[in-house]
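Researcher: Before we compare anything, I want clean individual predictions. No alignment, no superposition, just each chain on its own. First chain goes here; please echo the sequence and then give the structure tokens.
Model: Echoing the first chain and its structure:
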Amino acid sequence: MSEVSVVSFKSYPESVAKAFDQIGAAAMMGRQKRVMIKPNLVDVIPYPVTTPVECTSAIIDYVRRAGSAEIVIAEGSGGEKPTGEVFASLGYSELAAEKQVRLIDLNEQPLIKSEIPSCKIFSSYYLPRLAMEYFIISVPMLKAHTLSTVTLSLKNMMGFAPPSHYQMGGFWKKSFFHNRIDESIIEMNMHRMPDLTLIDATIGMPEYHLGGSHCDPPVNKIVASFNAVEADRVGARLLGFDWKEIGHLAEEIVCASPQRGREC
């Protein structure tokens, strides 16, 4: 089995299944009672800024074939629009009805406080209780970012951060992270890292995470791994970056709640 699978894109059903099969994901999925799919739906902006419903649909089908009991789709939008409006505008409300899965607004969930005294920024970190109760599949898009160089699986976990604690002025609901973004990405993933990553690298955005040019030619890949750090390093290379020069990718991250082999 590969630690990181990189497959050429043909269709979401075929390529998602192939990428997951290459890392042995079906066996892990078959042991799960609760699976949370976390797309990147930062605001009401279409693909390739946000994760398309076709990709998420293919993941739902794969997880169901493997035998997992409950599947939910969860996001906490970071932009001006509320998460419910983002779900509706980007087709996720229709997908949820079609696939009979529940949509969860992470910005409005009961919280727990996770403690890691060694952290410099988030020695105490608030996040939804559900984050510790589900096996999390992070599904980011392949994009550059103006502050963190890339925005991939690790940064996608910012959707779990509640605006009640991390919105510091303006309309960006997670603006607290922007000041020391690389350190913040590392530390929030020390509290909770995704259990499984699938990067939609079908197009790629090499300049800016909310717009700008697309990779030409398109990257045309799907990336999957149980190791979010290694998946993101591959994603950085696909965008033409040296991951050793990206603050949050240049070191290993040790999560306080280890994911490998986790059952939820």
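Researcher: Okay. Second chain, same rules.
Model: Second chain and its structure:
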Amino acid sequence: MAGSYDDRDGMIWMDGKLVPWRDANVHILTHGLHYASSVFEGERAYNGTIFKSRQHSERLLFSGRQLDMPIPWTVDEIEAAKYEVMKANGLTDAYVRAVAWRGSGEDMGVSSARNKVRLAVAAWEWGNYYGDAKMKGAKLDISRWKRPSPETIPVHAKAAGLYMICTMSKHEAEAKGCSDALFMDYRGYVAEATGANIFFVKDGEVHTPTPDCFLNGITRQTVLGMLEERQIKVHERHIMPEELESFQQCWLTGTAAEVTPVGQIGDYNFEVGEMTKGIAQAYEDLVRA
């Protein structure tokens, strides 16, 4: 499948039924388009099985509640929809996107309580998120934007509005020849990339930012479990940007990113070392088991 995302063959699940891909549309006065009343999940299927699928469905419902936008579908119904979409499109290895939003209705101001919450699920083939950086190490810019305080926005929801600065930062990074950008948080600590969590290695031990103002990713949690099984010491803590110089290895984790080595952040360089390569391979083995 290739071409513009609004002009493809296939089927998309919308509000309980499959519709032709090109007909999966919403009205221009959809509340989610104007006020970011939208939450989503990105998932990957390997050999016909969506990795950590139920956890993603549960987080989608959690995100909806965080935005005062209860999604009128159960985890089981969302699970069935995802697999129905994959079957309808003949996919076994795929990226799966579930998205819920406030639709058009009686409200078109900031308040939208009378507008129906809608849900759609699409799936398509998608290769390495960072292209050949998956092998040789991604290059990251350092964003001028910062991850916000939990007092300003529901930072633990996977909400569309939280990605505005991600798009802006990634565009700026790509213009500089980078794959992605690294955020600091509102206090100045190292946070995450635009769509992935980050890990560092120093003297055989792992350091990763505490996810107290950004998403504690499902892939991140999976990798932490893998490190624990290997009895590798992990420090979840606040990391100052000047510490980047002292780390020897670095990698990103995310459903789209999977486990991607990082070779450079700003002026700091990292080796694609044995621990990084080992965790990346172990994750690949796990998702395809």
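Researcher: What stands out in the second chain?
Model: The two ends are 26 Å apart (CA to CA). Additionally, The chain has two domains: 11-124, 133-287.
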